[in-house]
Amino acid sequence: MKRVLSGIQPSGQLTMGNYIGAMQNFVKLQHDHECFFMIVDLHAITVPQDPAALREQSEQVAALYLAAGIDPSKASIFLQSHVPQHAELGWLMTTIANMGELERMTQFKDKSEGKESIPAGLFVYPTLMAADILVYNAELIPVGDDQKQHLELTRDLANRFNHRYGDTFRMPEPYTPEVGARIMSLDDASKKMSKSNPNAGSYIALLDDPAVVRKKISRAKTDSEALVKFDPANKPEISNLLGIYSHISGLSVAEIEAKYEGQMYGPFKKDLGELVANFLEPLQARYREVRQSGELYDVLKQGAERAQEVAQLKLDDVKKRMGFVMPR
Ligand code: AQP
After folding, report:
1. Would you say 195 is a known binding-site residue?
2. Mind listing the domains of the chain with CATH numbers?
3. pLDDT of residue 179 exceeding 80
């Protein structure tokens, strides 16, 4: 049984991209791994967040974890800010990292591009992410392609620390379960579907009203060829919609292509709208139950207690090795 760690930022409304690329895998992994699934609120504030929105979105992500099927008796679910060991080890890791390697991170370059004033937190984000992983001795890290560079840096920092202070950290491995799990924007298939995109028409939010979902899919950008065919290089928009269809229906792309052979995009989009709306309805019903029941706070408390227990052991080990006086 391997230890798995992952998280989602409460930086907006969770999307179908977050579901297909992350949450769906969390649900699968919990059955035969020791899982820690966080709501990474400390990461979310590396770009400005409205306090009331951050609070609401953090509770939403936690409730959506439960609604999607993460079982708190199998996996620890917690808020990153409830486990202070993350921030403490995060600080220690900033003393291990170099400016140059942080400057090379493409996410930092993308998120800071064109900004007059760049928050220092955005720059040191990867050292906190390294701490998130290393503080649990996590072995498998489910991440999208975009996070692989940060994981590589985590491994470099772990190696450097081990070399300097003795064998302390386990090397984490990326877990990328299947090809094609990158869901793209509905209005621009060259960008990934993203919850912080200011255009709400570019993503399907897990909490979107079913009527809104149908409308967003009917308005999704497509080419003018009117041929339902999976061809990401030449037909990225329809290929993206086919990917969503396949993930939600469980049908293969070939089966879906055959189903819509000789038809225009209209019927395909209409069926996809129905499919996604029907998929989201029960998830949203469970979500509302979770929010009303108040069970969330117990789940988060239990999850944080378990996480703190594990994380404190590693943090103590790290601090002793670095030469801190330990309390007696
Ligand atoms: N479009 C996507 N397709 C597949 N997987 C995706 N993920 C995000 N978008 C897609 C996966 O969701 C997990 C959590 O992501 P995150 O919230 O930590 O940050 P992110 O990857 O930057 O996601 P967003 O939605 O784009 O957030 P913002 O807009 O706030 O930056 C990760 O496992 C990610 O791979």
Report:
1. yes
2. 3-181+294-322 (3.40.50.620), 208-288 (1.10.240.10)
3. no
